[in-house]
Amino acid sequence: xxxxxxxxxxxxxxxxxxxxxxxxxxxxxxxxxxxxxxxxxxxxxxxxxxxxxxxxxxxxxxxxxxxxxxxxxxxxxxxxxxxxxxxxxxxxxxxxxxxxxxxxxxxxxxxxxxxxxxxxxxxxxxxxxxxxxxxxxxxxxxxxxxxxxxxxxxxxxxxxxxxxxxxxxxxxxxxxxxxxxxxxxxxxxxxxxxxxxxxxxxxxxxxxxxxxxxxxxxxxxxxxxxxxxxxxxxxxxxxxxxxxxxxxxxxxxxxxxxxxxxxxxxxxxxxxxxxxxxxxxxxxxxxxxxxxxxxxxxxxxxxxxxxxxxxxxxxxxxxxxxxxxxxxxxxxxxxxxxxxxxxxxxxxxxxxxxxxxxxxxxxxxxxxxxxxxxxxxxxxxxxxxxxxxxxxxxxxxxxxxxxxxxxxxxxxxxxxxxxxxxxxxxxxxxxxxxxxxxxxxxxxxxxxxxxxxxxxxxxxxxxxxxxxxxxxxxxxxxxxxxxxxxxxxxxxxxxxxxxxxxxxxxxxxxxxxxxxxxxxxxxxxxxxxxxxxxxxxxxxxxxxxxxxxxxxxxxxxxxxxxxxxxxxxxxxxxxxxxxxxxxxxxxxxxxxxxxxxxxxxxxxxxxxxxxxxxxxxxxxxxxxxxxxxxxxxxxxxxxxxxxxxxxxxxxxxxxxxxxxxxxxxxxxxxxxxxxxxxxxxxxxxxxxxxxxxxxxxxxxxxxxxxxxxxxxxxxx
Length: 716
Description:
With 716 residues, the chain is an all-alpha fold. The model is unreliable at 493-513 and 710-716 (pLDDT under 50). The chain has helices at 5-25, 35-94, 96-141, 145-167, 175-184, 188-204, 206-212, 214-236, 252-268, 279-306, 313-333, 339-352, 379-413, 430-447, 451-472, 481-492, 494-498, 500-503, 520-523, 529-532, 536-552, 559-579, 589-613, 623-633, 640-650, 656-666, 671-683.
């Protein structure tokens, strides 16, 4: 059948399976005898199956018929219910006015119930008048605080009970009922405020009361604790947030701490009449020191016993004093203070505050530890005040003293005789000694505050001293300029001898070595063929050095040793710098040999001179001239790359520009050899070792001269 294609497909499969089975069973002739028996058996089976199918289909058809009947019956019932609901709806709409009248009646009933609750509470309200009178009388007496507070709490409990009864109904209490209750308890808040004011007066005088009348202070603390327990019960108890309680939470413990802090600030940190100028600031800080120490002793010994442990009253008071004093000092430091006031404040903050004389007093330890509260004044403010102090010292003391001393000293410099000598043969003068004593005193005073302030004052003093020496340099007129300059250097060493352990030596300004400019005319002659021909140039240099070293012998150590080393380094520097000027190019092997010999002889003579003057060869920098002459003496230019590599190892600050000039000075280096040498230097960069004394990095290479060319012509 076309409506059931699955049935047709199943039938085909069944037929195919049956044919396959039959062909297999009846394939043999001996099986054909049972064919009739098999046919009758299959006919009976088919008849049985058809009968069961008919029975099943008939049963399903009867069930469907029953279901349809039930659906028709249910549809009728639904229609009947719908009609009934419509009728009920019309009846409800007709009764709306009656329901509104019932709502008004319900409100009247609720108000009656609340008024009845108020009427039932009238005996309690009547007895509450006596409760209200008792705390008022106790407050008038001023000392019966616990009795006054007990009456106040009774009234508050009564108010809470009546209010809870009113809120216990299913709706909000009426305005009339609330009005009756509020009218009775109208003065309760004023009574609570009056008690609070009495408590805060007691807390404000706590330092005195714990010594004179601790019972009164303890009563105030007990009242505060009672109120805190009520606040906690209302906020955290089972009926928390059920309905608002007037005047709660009171938070009297926080107010207790606030009153303590305000009292401390008013007593110590808001005194407008205090004299802060000059010695007045020191006296004021001394008063703060004694008062704060005394009050913290009172807190530790007496007030701690009057407060519960969880108040942690000693730590909190310590923090109050620390923070209040920090803010107070910040305000003072923001003013225009003179140097003495800055010194007094810094010394007090950094040395007195945490010392055993104040916050580190044995009576406070170990309970009081202000180190955990941070610095009293921030390091940034301390740094700022140190710079301000140095500036004021410089303006008020150092610069003016230097100017006056310089005026007097100039008159001494124009005398015809040399300055006086001490018993050791060193030049001396009284006026520079006064200047150095003044600088030494300022450095010593600064060391009493901090090491950083000492270093700042020390650096300022050295800058001013160097400026003083620069202003002193006028060699055109004074006859004994060098002698008087050495007087300054001798006096420059006074702070070092006195404070050697703190200041690690005081180097004189390098500008005092300007006298060695006498070498400049001599350096202008090298390298030249005149210089190659004899030793006159180095002999003249040795004479100049020997002359000045005789003058320097009147200077104390370590300045003399420093001047000697600086002179040797300056001689070497200018000598090598003159070689780098490219004034000469060797034209033959003989000239190269002559040049290297001249370099060797000059270096040996200069080295011996400085050695005889007291400078060890290991401390001399003239060794670089010996190394340079080795580069010039080398016969085979092809080996220059190896020689330069060894030179770079000893003197890693030499550059390819320096090497190029030395190769030019030889006069026999081809372009290919030059490129090999420079490429080798690029491939083997050297790093400067620690404590290496620069040689070539202080010697500038002159810029190459550009060829002179005319337009459309050949370059010269």
